Request: fold
Amino acid sequence: MARYFFHIHDGTSALDNTGTELPDIAAAQSAALQTSGEIIKQGSMEILWKGVPWEMSVTDGPQQDSRTFFVVRFSAAQK
Reply:
């Protein structure tokens, strides 16, 4: 199993220092979407409505310069 690190960037950075062991990239993609959904449900994404994009990058290490496997991005615009 590989360890995947889920970092959040929303104008600031919240780095995942421990990571999560998962069997493959598909499991990491599923975990990223599920975790993003939970954050949205908790109402922690008000930054989106201020025009700041929110993203979760999934990497192979805890540092910002770790190899990125994929990024999930959210943005919103009021009209």
Observations:
- The beta strands are 2-9, 13-14, 20-22, 54-59, 68-74.
- The longest helix spans residues 25-41.
